Structure formats: C-alpha cells, structure tokens
Amino acid sequence: MLVSFLSDNLVKKISFLNHAVSTRSQLPILSNFLLVAENGKLTISATDLEMGIVSSISANVQKEGSVTVPAKNFSDLFSNILNQKITLETEENILKLNGEKIKATFQTMPAEDFPKLYDQKGAEILSLEKNEIERFFTRTTFAAAVDTTRPALSGVLLENQKTGLVFVATDSYRLTLQKTPLKALKELEKAIVVPARIIKEMSFVKEEDDKVKFYVAKESNQILILQGETIIVGRLMDANYPEYSKIIPTNQTTKTEIDREELLNAIRICSVFARETANIVKFTVQKEKLIVSANSPAVGEDLVEVEAELTGEENEIAFNAKYLIDILSILSEELLVFEMTGPLNPGVFKIKDDNNFLHLIMPIRVQG
Q1: DSSP string spanning 237-264?
Q2: High-pLDDT (> 70) share of the chain, %
Q3: Which CATH number is associated with domain 248-361?
Q4: Which of 45, 76, 125, 165 has the most CB atoms around its CB within 10 Å?
Q5: The CATH number of domain 123-245, selected from 3.30.479.10, 3.30.450.20, 3.10.150.10, 3.90.110.10
Q6: DSSP 45-98
C-alpha cells in the first residue's frame, strides 16, 4: 500500500470512527482500524462487533492495499498533525507514516483478520434530510433503555402506518411516540427494531451531504445508515417489541396547558431537594397553577408555582425528576399539554396543537 492525502481530511473523520473501536474485547484486532487504499480513496473501518463505522476520504493511491493499525495511537497521532500532506506505506508488518516534518511507524496486523462489516447494503427503505433525523429521532432515542437486559427496549421501533413511519422508544419507565410523514421507499413488510445507539451516532457524522439513507439487508438482518462517505452498520433486533399501544391512556380526567421552559426551571429548582429522596418531585395540579415540590427530611423542602390552564379535575402525581428534565430539555416548543388520570396512572406530555407526538412517564407512588 502506498497512499497520500491531506491530514485535515482524515482528522475530520477519525474521532467519529473511534466510537466503534472496542476497548474491552479480548480480540486484539477489534482495537485496530482497517485501512484500505483503492479507487482514489482511503477507507477506514472500525467495529466492536455490535456497531461498525466505515468512512472514506479522497487520496492519491499509488499502490492499492490494506492493513490494520492500533486505533488509539493512530488517531491520537493524527489529532496533532494539522494541514500536512501525509504518505502511508506498508513494508512487511510495518506501516510507515511520512509528513513534512514527521516520521512514524506502526506495528500492524493482517487486514484479512478484521471482521467483514457487511456483504451488501440491502434494500433502501428510507431517505431523509439530516434535520429530519434531529427533528424526529432525537425526540425518540433518548427514551430507549441503556442496558440490554431486555434487548428490544434498547432499540427504536420503526413501524410503517398509512400516514407515515412511526418511531417508538421505551425503557419501561417512560415511552415516546413520534408520528412522521416520512414514507418508506420500499414497503416495510413488518416493523423493525433498530439499536438506539446506531441512530444516536448519526448526530456525530461530519459530512457535507445532508441526505441520510437507510438500508435493510434481510439476509444478514442488518441496517446500514449512509451519509456522504460514511456508513454506520448495526444488527436489527430480533426480540419482540412490547405492545406499546396498550399502555397509552385514551381518556384523561386532568388536562393542563403549561409553558415548557417555566416548568423545566421549576423542576430543576426542586431537583436540588429531590436528590435526597430518590429524585422524586410532585406535581399538584390546581385551577390556575401547577405546583412542583420536593421534600427531603434530611435537607428540607421547596415548591415552585407555575402558571397553568386547567381543564378537568385537580390532581396530584409524582415523578422521577430526571425523566421530566430529559423530555422538557429535548423539546423546543413553548407550549405543552400535560394530561393525567390519578396518581397511579401514567402522566402524558404532548405538544400543543400537535397530535403526532406524546411522551408518557410512569408515576412514583408516594406516601401522604
């Protein structure tokens, strides 16, 4: 392999590629980048076997070839090489790096030992703009479970309905549902569950091309997300997704309209005291206000009144403050609607005049 390129082009990509490098695997090859020089490009790949990332930069390829190098050392070195022409050349088990005033060598491992990330892209199921990723997926993925004890809950459900794709995520304590006007390019035969981690990584891609394309390869049960010269690869989840529609309340006895920013500030104030009592904050919904409060025997108590317009019954309910802060921070709309039916049923947040979004949070039972 003999290839040359501008260092800045690689620096833009390499920090993102590190997201897929394994740090705990017993397979040494997973701590490496795969470098492939061919067809006027240098392509870099990384994988931890759960997710793979492939990205390319333009390069002058004088001799095609491939090799793997230690990812951490390679990326750390390039983070300090600015605006230089770099040449990479393999010689037996060594990769030589030459710059204008720098020389380095890396011990390598054979490229054939690196896992193959995918055989084929599969069928394109969705094409959208990057701002639509931020608009629809960001509102959803945060509610997916972080742990994998129930694998399906660490994914996002993509379900094709007549009006468009619906995205759902839940960790069993909260649930987000986002209806979209997006249409699958190829009709999804059944709903798919995409690892939330794969979707979250899209926000870190630094490509000039704003078009994002989703592919599903049935044979390998993989999803590929492509933007510009970057591909993220993951395996679709086989686990059955919960029947989410059964837990979404259809009738509410209490409905109140509220300013999102004002409510978020009130919860942050009360969360200072809530830290001592399992992060519990209480909502007291009254005629023209919603009272947010927290009580800690060891510290004290506080409450904040927030203006609200009530329809229906006055009520009380308690939540985990973190879940409230999460949803109120992710949304940007000014006016929200909060709905509930008693202290033991889920509370539901909606965006005013928007029937396409809802966020449900399970309540916490409190004494008194």
Answers
A1: P-SPPP-GGGGS-S--SEEEEEEHHHHH
A2: 100
A3: 3.10.150.10
A4: 45
A5: 3.10.150.10
A6: EEE-SSEEEEEEEE-EEEE-EEEEEEHHHHHHHHTT--S-EEEEEEETTEEEEE
Q: Do domains 123-245 and 248-361 have the same CATH topology?
A: yes
Residue range 71-119, pLDDT digits in tens: 999 999 999 998 999 999 999 999 999 999 899 999 999 999 999 999 9
Out of 162-166, 187-191, 198-202, 255-259, give the one with best mean pLDDT. Answer: 255-259
64: which 2 tokens? 């095609």
Of the candidates 340, 345, 331, 333, the one whose C-alpha atom is nearest the C-alpha of residue 140 is 331
Chain-centroid distance of CA 163 in Å reads: 24
- Taking the whole predicted model, whether its pTM rises above 0.85 is answered as yes
pLDDT surpassing 70 at residue 204: yes
**Amino acid, res. 42:** L
Q: Which two tokens stand for residue 163?
A: 């009006």
Per-domain residue ranges of the chain: 2-113, 123-245, 248-361
Query: Looking at domain 2-113, what is its CATH homologous superfamily?
Result: DNA Polymerase III, subunit A, domain 2 (3.10.150.10)
pLDDT tier for residue 368 given thresholds of 50, 70 and 90: low
Least confident of 146-160, 264-278, 321-335: 146-160
Q: For 210, how many CA atoms within 13 A lie in the half-sphere containing its CB?
A: 6
Q: What is the DSSP letter of 141?
A: H
Residue that is written with structure tokens 């997926």 in the block? 137
Cα Rg of the chain, angstroms: 25
Residue 89, phi then psi, degrees to nearest 5: -140, 135
Bridge-based pairing of strands 254-259 and 300-312 is: antiparallel
